[in-house]
Amino acid sequence: MGRDSLFGETIVWTGEARYARLPVAYRAVSALAFISTASALSFVLAAKLALHVAALPTLLFAAFSLAVGIAAIELPRWWLSQMRYTVTESHVIWQRGRFRRSIEIRSISFARIFWDPRQAGVGDLELVRAVPTGALRRRLTLRLRGVAAPDRVWAIVRGVETTVPGGLGARPLTQRLDPDERVLWTARPRRSWRALLPRGQRQVGLLLVGVLLLGSVGRIAWRLPAIVRSLSGAGIEIAPLLAIVLALTLSLTLLLGLFGYAVNEACLKPWRLVSNTRYLVTNRRVLIQRGHEELHLDRDRIVDVIDAPGQGSGVTDLFLVLDGPRARALEASGAFGELERTPYLRPVLLAVEDVDGARRVLRPRELPEAA
């Protein structure tokens, strides 16, 4: 298939983004921007009808919100339409025009696959290199968005020949194993009400923001009847009065939407996804499936397993300590007391009951040599 111009290596696969719809985050931003536009225009209309003045600052804000909403729809489509992906003998390359990012294949610690629920066989493939914890902690990630059959692409990156058709994300992982790969241990995390409690700066911050938003909603809803009575008593006509009520209602809708998002991300979503999570340990890999998200980790990357008490009685969290080429410092992904709970899957088995069985099959085959 030719050679790559950057590394001079043989190209084994090329592809491009195939997204036909917007990611959830961009759709949410566009919806909030359009609601803000409608609310601002309602205030402008009320000022024009009641006071016969043009509320220029509010009108400018409405124009700005409208521009943000349109940009949230069009810019991601334009950005994704120019992406190109290349897999060579030793590198995975992301390219858009003259911009390039790459990751060395042997440095990849694990991969995440995010299946698109509305486009069969299409999803994102995220390649992660985990490096030392502590002050030097960082992660190199390369995300290939809108890839057709991302599980097939990941098999190509790993250099594994497979006869299983790619792009079947709706199938269980047990039906998409490598040739000669067999399941040694499987389990599901036990759901507990303690999982509703926020953990880490991100979730605590979201919950605090949600509380503040709920307070604002309560204050506006409490004062709305009094505001309507005051305006009606002041002789405001019905048309501008309806415009003001519409503007305040849209503002309440916007605040309630933000409150619902914050509470869902901080508490409800992590708790709900527990029942959709499954752990698999095979003779080659550790696989985690949660809804439309998967984590694939080769067992050769695991050098140790650290356990810690989980949320709930009788369960344990197992943290997989990873190591990679030229990176003898270990990346524990939370094993050293980190409470941050990211929205994506990590190489961690949470709320495990069969701890002895998990540790037995996860025992590293051989410890790495000292650096």
Structure overview:
The protein has helices at residues 24-51, 56-80, 150-158, 200-233, 238-273, 355-362, and strands at residues 11-16, 83-88, 91-96, 99-104, 110-115, 122-130, 139-148, 183-187, 277-282, 285-290, 293-298, 302-309, 316-324, 327-331, 348-352. By secondary structure, it is of the alpha+beta class. Among the domains are: 24-80; 181-371, no CATH class. The protein has a 7-stranded antiparallel sheet, with helices on both faces. A 4-stranded antiparallel sheet has the order 1-2-3-4, with helices on one face. Helix 1 packs antiparallel against helix 5 and helix 4 (200-233) runs antiparallel to helix 5. The longest helix has 36 residues, at 238-273. The protein is flat, with a radius of gyration of 26 Å.
Tags for this entry?
15 strands
Order of helices and strands: EHHEEEEEEHEHHEEEEEEEH
Uncertain ranges: 334-339, 366-371
Through-space gap between termini: 39 Å
**How many β-strands, per DSSP?**
15
